[in-house]
């Protein structure tokens, strides 16, 4: 049986992954560093400061700044990002997500959130989804960002759910790794997430009955 379903936020529930990319791109370009969508795959699920380090590495600039300069750069990126968030409304919930949530709720299962974003609360509020989650594991509750399993394990604990009876849903490579290391069943959104146990191209393809069936088969095999 299933204990809980735990969602990533950015890129799964809403397309804020794209806003993170645009905000980083703006900051990177101000420093003469070019980043594209392919590079951005490596930033998904990664904390703000770790993302900045990856971008500086990409431009061979990692030794050029002091910690306080880096902190100022990270806040600047966040200001760019928060400008995008101002436009966010419940209409920005990705296709298929409402039906998925309704299906999970209809089965009486707990729903959790696992997002390393310090803006997770603001995003959920803008989408009017705060009441959906029985427990939210966010940046304030963890010390290590994905691919470390800490955030998913924290969400399982908060929901009193056993990891190998729980499902995680992710759009990031780092996120799928975190789910698998936690011992959970991984649903991946995005065709490149080969390590996921169940893979769909986009959120509109998430079908609760099919996921449940695939999860039951996985349980029999494991
Ligand atoms: C994750 C995103 O959810 O949150 C990352 O996938 C982002 O792209 C990270 O860097 C941290 O977000 P924030 O809002 O704290 O800068
Ligand atoms: Mg994500």
Task: Please characterize this protein's 3D structure.
One of its GO terms (molecular function) is magnesium ion binding. The chain is an alpha/beta fold. Helices cover 45% and strands 11% of the residues. It contains 9 helices and 6 strands; from the N terminus they run βαααααβαβαβαββα. It has helices spanning 16-30, 37-40, 48-58, 67-85, 97-106, 120-127, 150-158, 173-181, 208-221, and strands at residues 4-7, 110-114, 135-137, 166-170, 185-189, 198-200. A 6-stranded parallel β-sheet has the order 3-2-1-4-5-6, sandwiched between helices. The model has no long low-confidence stretch (mean pLDDT 96). Magnesium ion (MG) is lined by residues 8, 10-12, 17, 44-45, 171-172, 175.
List keywords for this structure.
binds magnesium ion; HAD-like_sf; HAD_sf; cytoplasm; 6-stranded parallel β-sheet; 222 residues; carbohydrate metabolism; binds 6-O-phosphono-beta-D-glucopyranose
Provide the low-confidence segments as ranges: none
Classification by helices and strands: alpha/beta
Q: Give the terminus-to-terminus CA distance.
A: 13 Å
**Radius of gyration (Å):** 17 Å
Structure summarized in a few sentences:
This protein is 45% helix and 11% strand.
SSE layout:
Elements: E1 4-7, H1 16-30, H2 37-40, H3 48-58, H4 67-85, H5 97-106, E2 110-114, H6 120-127, E3 135-137, H7 150-158, E4 166-170, H8 173-181, E5 185-189, E6 198-200, H9 208-221
Parallel strand pairs: 1-2, 1-4, 2-3, 4-5, 5-6
Helix pairs in contact: 1-4
The structure holds 6-O-phosphono-beta-D-glucopyranose (BG6) and magnesium ion (MG).
Residues 9-10, 17, 20, 43-48, 51, 78, 115-119, 139, 172 line the site of 6-O-phosphono-beta-D-glucopyranose (BG6).
Active site: 8 (nucleophile), 10 (proton donor/acceptor)
Site (Important for catalytic activity and assists the phosphoryl transfer reaction to Asp8 by balancing charge and orienting the reacting groups): 115, 146
Organism: Cytobacillus firmus (Bacillus firmus)
